[in-house]
Amino acid sequence: MQKLGRLHRGQDTSIKLYYTPGAGSLASRIVACEAGLQIDYDKVDLKNQTTASGCSFSKINPKGGVPALSLNNGEVLTEASVVVQFLADQAPHAQLILWRAPWTGTGSRNGSIS
Ligand SMILES: N[C@@H](CCC(=O)N[C@@H](CS)C(=O)NCC(=O)O)C(=O)O
């Protein structure tokens, strides 16, 4: 798997967040903003499964839901919990999530991300 570099304000990137106003993608947009990440955004019409840039959203995320995050290695992340943690991990200086978070399933890890 290609190693992903960290994204900081001003860095050129092709990472794109697919979102719909008022939907479950809002948390991802907030985290990207709070982290100071410069990413691209593409608004999704959920009913028609099209994006503002003219793409077929169901080809990007066959599950059809937002958020979806396309990475610059071609991978697409889905599920709000995954997208939010990925974005927060790109900007440890913002301290949105504990850096070197404790092991999965432990109370301290759950505390660090709740
Ligand atoms: N389990 C997904 C749910 C995503 C989801 O269903 N989002 C809604 C909007 S809040 C959606 O896109 N619905 C349209 C559809 O699934 O066609 C997540 O946590 O991200």
TrEMBL record:
UniProt-listed SUPFAM superfamilies = Thioredoxin-like (SSF52833)
A Pfam short name? GST_N_2
Q: Which residues form the GST N-terminal domain?
A: 12-95
Q: Please give the name of this protein.
A: GST N-terminal domain-containing protein
* Organism for this UniProt entry: Microvirga aerophila
